[in-house]
Amino acid sequence: MQNLQEWLSQPPRYTTFRVNKLKKFDCDSLNGFLKTKSKELNTSALPNFYFIKSDCLVLEQWPEEVEVKKGNKEVIVDALCAAAVLRGAHVFAPGVMGMPMNCQLGEKVDIYGDMEGQCKRGLKITFEGKKLFVGTGVLRMLRQDLFDNGVQPSGIAIETLLPVSRLPVVNETICPPGVLLLQNLPSIVCGWVLNALPNENILDMCAAPGNKTTHLGEMSNNQANIIALDKTPQKSEKIKENCIKQGVSCVNAYAFDSTKCCSLDSNNVDNGPPFPPNSFDKVLLDAPCSGLGQRPQLNNKMTPKMLESYKFVQRKLMKAAVEVLKIGGKLVYSTCTVTVEENEGMVQWALEKFPCLQLIPAEPLLGGPGLRESGLSDAQRVMVQRFSPEVDPLRLVEPIYRDSIGFFIATFTKTH
Ligand SMILES: C[S@@+](CC[C@H](N)C(=O)[O-])C[C@H]1O[C@@H](n2cnc3c(N)ncnc32)[C@H](O)[C@@H]1O
């Protein structure tokens, strides 16, 4: 078994995209883009890509013969930015910490991550702290654009050429807007588990920026009635923007605290939140969580106190979810973290606290079972999905689903 910490410190070896079924995706655009990149990298090899379902595209690494060669001037970026580079992203201006004085636009540079957050912004000399080489790129901004004009810089500072992970640098802009969405595989699976169908009333309780909401709208062919809530007003605006961009017209988004989304004084779902009890056929609770499943994690600053805090809001949200769910309805609970307390522990707590809830298989079951000795019985463990490096004979997992981010999905129904 691969050690969890080691697994979390490395990026997945695949990039996944959700493909919008409401729009037309042209494989030639990706092929053409990769061919152009292969010329820049002086290789005739191309990365493989394939669909695992009509809405899920997998892009593999550049073949091993494509080498990442260092030896250029060093640019230091913060750890978050370095993690993004390892996943195939460009370097955005706010992430740059240090750069030599004599760099030229268009020059090839080596990108290093500041592993302990020690680099002073604007550093001119060689950084001597703990650093990790994450890839090479081409400089698109100079020191004066980044550090010297007193305003927060924006835009791409370095176009990543090749990360050491050898993941292709491909983003959504290779297609017309709204066709492709970079999305982690378990998040896509989460949409498949909820399985939005035409005419269903669906509540997405923690929806921003709307990546799962839009997936649900698309899979229902814009025929479901979806309400998307997020407590932060700017974030709920983002849901609306993303729905427009992706051609999703069956979503109403509101800024609202979902812990308060059920009220006995309300009598209609169509007027927006709060809602009467027993209103929704399906509820997605993609809960705020400690996010410890994100990969790679290069410098996590989470304190034990912060870690402890998530379960309180998760419990409040779960209570509201149970209230607004119809009898016989389906509730999907998910997190992008690996802690037992926020995952199997929440399932155990919910089953004890709400006798009306019954755990049902979170199908399609593509991730592994719940953790051993986590408070769940084997019969319960096989009904949930945990995306992690553990190998458990209770359910073997295809390699692609074992090499994504850490994630958890459980599904309940309400019996009375
Ligand atoms: C894991 S993210 C959701 C990601 C989203 N489901 C997606 O796939 O794009 C959790 C979200 O919950 C929101 N949130 C936190 N507490 C909330 C509350 N009490 N009510 C509604 N939203 C909340 C946060 O603002 C954050 O956007």
From TrEMBL:
Q: Where is the SAM-dependent MTase RsmB/NOP-type domain?
A: 115-415
Q: Which residues form the active site?
A: 336 (nucleophile)
What residue range is the signal peptide? none
Recite the UniProt keywords alphabetically.
Methyltransferase, RNA-binding, S-adenosyl-L-methionine, Transferase
Give me the residues that bind S-adenosyl-L-methionine, please.
206-212, 230, 257, 286
Among InterPro entries, the record links this protein to: MeTrfase_RsmB-F_NOP2_cat, MeTrfase_RsmB-F_NOP2_dom, PUA-like_sf, PUA_sf, RCMT, RsmB/NOL1/NOP2-like_CS, SAM-dependent_MTases_sf
Q: Which Pfam families match?
A: Methyltr_RsmB-F
Alphabetized PROSITE patterns for the sequence: NOL1_NOP2_SUN, PUA, SAM_MT_RSMB_NOP
**Family the entry assigns:** Belongs to the class I-like SAM-binding methyltransferase superfamily. RsmB/NOP family.
The protein's name: SAM-dependent MTase RsmB/NOP-type domain-containing protein
Species for this entry: Loxostege sticticalis
